[in-house]
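Now for a chain:

_____
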Amino acid sequence: MKSRSSQTLPVRCLCLAILLGSCGCRSTDDPRRGTIPPKALVEKVLDKAQDPRKYWIKVYRGEHGPIFEDSHRLHPNQHAEVEFETNKQSLAPMIPGMTRKKESHPALIDTLSEHNWIDFYHALQFGAIALGPEPYGLRPTHVLDSTTSFVGLLPTFRIGMMQMESLVVNIRPVNMDLGPLERGVKDPYPVFVLGQDFLKPFSFIRIDFPIRTIAFSVSQPYKPDPVKLLAACTIEYGNRGLTVQGTLDNYEGAIAIDLAGDYEFAIPYPEASVETQLTLGSFVRRQVPVKNSLDLGFSARSLPSIGNQMFKDLVVTIDNRTMTLYLEKPPLR
């Protein structure tokens, strides 16, 4: 599968500038959240950057940066279903993720993010490898973050018994802190953020919000229940999020699906706090509360977006085979 970097930057200079210019505390052997790793340690990691071809990953120049082809590899016929790790005040789908070590760590599923993210401390703990030989660097496009991360590789990543090989991650050079990438999720804080690069290789991802579970399937096709189906919308992946076409009062066009966001609807500089009607295919919601996207940490150029609170009573399925988002009533329980 392909993993695309949004923006290529002089990563070594920018990462080291962060370390030199930060007033935060330097890390120790047991760093606190938000501490800055020593400059020499970051340089050591960058100096050991490996050519992706060593791991059977090809790199091409794309419109927005390098494309990592043949990363995020899955074995056929795998399936996993896990419960949310977020606390009861949040509907963000955060799951238990594992690397080469046996213990699990919270991984936030963020459909607005093109890429995957991890902090510096945990990247080293899990054996992440910087990719190079000249490191690739980028900043997120879905949230405002001035910190430049560098691209690395986790050889394995597991959800339950399901395993993904060659997970491309962007390593944020701060210890145990993903900043705005955490999307306000805490207790626990996410250790990983898994974006579109992680989601695309699956046949489907099914999120049952009422019972707070998420299922991943590698090979099985998804068949929605026609009795419970509320809407089927064509999806697109991109640097402005996973999007569908919809209408909201006077707006008609692309709307981002933000499953990590604990709100109903957001738009830059809204004219009203409530919109009359939102329509996605045959799915209609009236009297929709609206937030300002800028208050959620998005840029003024962000698309209108639908948060997870809109789907709190629904089952949402991302079907990558048919490039369709299904909205369904939950099964009887």
In short: Residues 2-204+212-217 form a domain with the Cathepsin D, subunit A; domain 1 fold (CATH 2.40.70.10). Residues 11-21 form the longest helix (11 residues). Residues 1-9, 20-24 have pLDDT under 50 and may be disordered. The longest strand covers residues 149-159.
